[in-house]
Amino acid sequence: MKKFFLYAFVLCFLSSCIPAKKLTYFQGEPATKSELYRLNNEPYRLQVNDILYIDIKAENPEIVSLFKNSATTSTTQGGEGLYFTGYTIDRHGNIRIPYIGDLNVLGYTEKEVRQKIESELTKYVKKVESVFVTVKLAGINFVITGEVGSPGTINLSQNEVSIVDAIANAGDVNTFGDRENIVVVRKTIDGVKKYKVNLLEIEIFESDNFYIKPNDVIYVAPLKQKTWGFGATGFQTFTTLVTVFSFVTTTILLINTL
């Protein structure tokens, strides 16, 4: 009976601790340096609910003032401010520009939108070459939830956001977070897609999903050790098991004395 409890104790202790291998990022060695730093040069194509910052300048400001949203004159606004002052792509894929009206930009790149606006301005401005149009995505907006320090909606004012950036800005993965199976849910023109990302391997830097897209949802699932209720470290697990076995032993002794 004593051996049974000893074996059970050791088995639970070993199986409930979280090994260091489950907590260490970017394990392994990259194949070559060129592959490690390979970037995906495919430009992002705009989706519904993306927000654009659009600015139109000219030598004579009065020429283009009619086409500008007066609230967008400040370039220091963050993603939250641009929700009210930027150009949000509606469910039909359109943005609405003063005097130009609805302009469909769904599936377009930033450069293509800029060219499209410049083309529309030729209808109203004689010397369109004197007009300077700026089109930028108003930051990368994403949702992160699960086993992270600060779950929620985050907007980063960057042209590109990697999965590492996203995790770091959410307070990193908790001890009980499964770094090996992070789920990224992405809504695209072709429908909803689901990807899995493994932060434990160095190959993540070469993955097509290393960079997230605007409006991605990132979920960090818990490790099985959390559902078991044991500690994250060996000492915590030891303390928990001692408490459990003490309770079991006391219960058995009480039953035998009856």
TrEMBL record:
Statement: the UniProt record of this protein carries the keyword Heme: no
Keywords carried by this UniProt record: Cell outer membrane, Ion transport, Lipoprotein, Membrane, Palmitate, Polysaccharide transport, Porin, Signal, Sugar transport, Transmembrane, Transmembrane beta strand, Transport
Chief localisation class: membrane
Gene3D superfamilies assigned to the protein according to its UniProt record, in alphabetical order: Outer membrane lipoprotein wza domain like
Start and end residues of each Polysaccharide export protein N-terminal domain: 41-135
GO biological process assignments: monoatomic ion transport
Record protein name field: Protein involved in gliding motility EpsA
